[in-house]
Amino acid sequence: MSGARPVDGVHKSIPRNQLLWSCRDQEREKHEEEIQGAGPFFFIGGANGAEIVSTYCEKRGWKRIYNKNRDDFKLKWCETKSAFNYLNFREGEQLVYQIPNNKVLTTKIGLLSSLREYERVSSKVNHGQAHRRLKLEDFIPTTFRMDVKEEREAFFAQQEGVSNNSGHMWICKPTGLNQGRGIFLLKSLEDIAALKAKLQYIEDQHTLKTLPCRPHAHVVQHYIQRPLLLKGKKFDVRSYLMIACTSNYMVFFHHGYVRLTCDLYDPSSNNLSTHLTNQYMQKKNPRYSQVKEDTVWSMESFNVYVNDRFQAAKGLPRDWVLGAFTRRMQQIMRHCFFAVKSKLDRRLGLFDLIGCDFMVDEDFKVWLLEMNCNPALHVNCEVLRAVIPPTVVETLDVTLEIFHKCRLRQRILPLASLRDFVLLYDGHDGSHSAVAYRKSHADGRSDRKVTKKSQPQSSVGGASDGNTVPNKNSSPGEHKPNTCPLQHPSKHVDVMKQTLTQEAAHPGHVTDLPGTSTQDRRDCEDDTESHSKEQKERDTQTNVS
Predict the structure, then answer these.
(1) Which H helix or E strand runs over 257?
(2) How far apart are CA 479 and CA 465, in angstroms?
């Protein structure tokens, strides 16, 4: 009998998937025995983007290793942020996908806290009367943190006296999950009362220490009830923010694609797939297999549709999607980057590709919904096959080119590998150069070569720091890579002030946001720590979004 074997005289069936995994394990062990000697080697953890990355590396003559304990890799591409991935990371010698503490940007609470902290610091900087500052309410729906007592009470107090006929809806989201998991709508006073009771129960149980750990913290956000519709369907836009280098920040924008629901939009529907556009949710729709090609549009198709349907009716400029809308997304993404610029782990070899989700309402106002680490890189329809592989390939091309130029003390710009990405920020500064790290690491001498000033290739809105020439009298030993800036909150605040001063001359770079709560500041200053072992484990496990 197939899949069976005698054990102590008894035939027992072996599940097919167990046999498959056994074969794969044997194959990997065989590969491990063969893959020795000279590299370069690359390691891939998880399936997201694995085929694209593997093909890319093999074309370069690199060899794939399967043992996660090996530390002789050139590139490590993992979809989960486990502390183990960074344990033996050699700065300036290896490349690792995902910045360890990117949750200051890619979780709901992390981003909100970072933006509020940015406002607190920016309020102390004179931006000049001619400077148009981006405000939080300009691009993020009204949001309350349910893990902060003051905000939680403010939200529930605001709902008192509001009738069910007011038309206001809210959406509740867990801070660290994606793919629509844990999201629910608050459509009535009864829904809000149920949430209040649930949160109070959790608070009480935590006080009594009957819960092993706190559940995921949630935010409640105003639901955009009048979104722009494409053929009657709700949609959002996935774009990409690439941080190709953190030792000298090099930040880029890339167009993505449009994600639509399978069904027509109905704000009264209780079906989450009518309200959430991501592919994970749409695949649950029984009609998905028949209409999946219609659930993803290219940006060009989106542009044509808006030109045909809305240009004259709404008085929009032609090619609004590829013009004004694109510039707005870039402005918002660049602003969010500035909010975390002084916090991210800055070591040569760390890089990231972040998925940014935007919505447009019927008045053509652009809203940022969230930023996601480990964006989905699946290619299960025609548009995704046309967009995602080139995006990943160019991400690796640009990251490698910058990495090698930093190691060789070469001018970063222009970039030969830059094709469709657009430069948002050039932070190339000799004082933070990998050269300083490598020189001080080698012999501590003070004869570091001065880097000449270079100009950005295709910067948006004056994005360059100008490749500052380092002080000739400075010693490389004085610079130490900022591996954990959040351990020094006063230092990162000082750096943030300096950044704001430099950017004050450029329109749209700085926000004027609501006041920062004590909890927001605490999260910004200490968000690399967890309240419990269980919480820490959840934070390090990130699913495809």
Answers:
(1) strand 250-260
(2) 19
- Among 118, 101, 140, 135, smallest CA distance to 219 is for 140
467 torsion bin: left (phi>0), alpha (psi -120 to 50), beta (else): left
Choose among 216, 246, 248, 214: nearest CA to 110: 216
Q: What is the pTM of this model?
A: 0.77
Q: How far is it, in rounded angstroms, from Cα 41 to Cα 38?
A: 8
What lies within 8 Å, CB to CB, of 110 at 6+ separation is 103, 104, 175, 523, 527
Tally: H helices and E strands in the chain: 18, 16
CB atoms within 10 A of CB 233: 18
Q: Which tens digit of pLDDT belongs to each residue from 162-208?
A: 776 666 899 999 886 767 778 888 988 899 999 999 888 888 776 66
| Contact between residue 348 and residue 243 where contact means Cβ atoms under 8 Å apart | no
CA distances from 265 to 55, 232, 273, 274, 352 (A): 39, 6, 10, 6, 34
Say how far apart CA 55 and CA 249 lie, in whole Å. Answer: 27
Question: Which tens digits make up the pLDDT trace of 253-268?
Answer: 999 999 999 899 998 8
Q: What tens digit of pLDDT does each residue of 237-250 get? A: 999 999 999 999 99
Which residues lie below 8 Å from residue 414, measured CB to CB, with a gap of 6+? 457
**DSSP state, residue 316:** P
Could you give phi then psi for residue 192, rounded to 5 degrees? -65, -40
**Cα gap 320→304, rounded to integer Å:** 10
Under 8 Å between Cβ of 237 and 256? yes
Q: What is the residue whose two structure tokens read 């501590």? A: 444
Q: How far apart are CA 329 and CA 311, in angstroms?
A: 19
Classify 451 as helix, strand or coil: coil
